[in-house]
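ok trying this again, last paste got cut off
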Amino acid sequence: MTRPDTPRNDDDLRRWIDRGMTADDAGEWGAFVDELRAESRLDEVELRRDAARVAEAVLDRTVREDLGWRGDLRLVTGFVRRRLRSSVLLRVAAASLLVHLVALPVLAVYRIITAEPERDGFVVDFEKPGELPFAEPREEALPLDDDVALPELESLDAPSLAAQNERNADRWSVFRRGEELRSVAEFAWDSALERRLAARASALLDGVAPRGDVTVGGDLERLLRVEEHLDALLFGGVARHDAADLAWLVEQAAGDPPRAALAAAALARAARYGVALPAGADAAIARFGDADFAPFADLATAEGGAPLSAAYVHALRSAAPAGTLSPDLDALLAR
């Protein structure tokens, strides 16, 4: 900075010298002026150089900008270069990535060179087991004579495959009609026959044999008891009906419907479950093809022959005294 008494230009300096400046002062002030002029020239040179750089940068970013892929590449590389120059961690990460990229082909070539040759095929060898030190000697199987007959599958004391399938189908029918049977079991019924059927529906849902606490008397009682025995057999219980019950069903099936239809339906269900039937049972079951059995033909179908079906209740209503079964029972089973 210049003081107030310091000349500001050459004219002020000359006037200041004319007023009484000594030779020593003139020399010092001349050196000072030369120094100022040298610094001014240096600043002018630097300013001119910076201005040139700024002008070149502006031209590169405007009229000289390459709008093709080379320009895009130059912008990206410039940005990456500036970011690498400003961040140490980024330079370390870039160096690590470069080392991995260089090492990966080397490892791949090493793996190819040191790989084991492929085998021609996959071979599995089975070795014969050796004799156990304390094993008992095995007996040789005796040859069978040609006249020796093996027991047939049907003669074994077990339900056949067809009987098991029939039982499974009826168990599935009970499960599928669970809502209807539960409505029957939980309804407040009036007559003894309705309460007996409600107890049977509850037992079917629980998968147990009905207890038969409510009795209806007469031939209907025996028909209901045989059906409940078949329910017990359905869920893996022991068949509690005897040959007399089956013979009685054959006699009833020879009569007039609807009671004959109920007896024939019980015989058909017993046959499906694998129960051995007495003579005449097949002819009784075949009566479903007669004209007088036509109103109860649904009992011979898979759905009508299921436990406590709507077709069974329809036939039971026809065989029971008038007014014994409420229409609500059909409505619940038909939902």
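PB: full thing came through this time. The radius of gyration is 56 Å.
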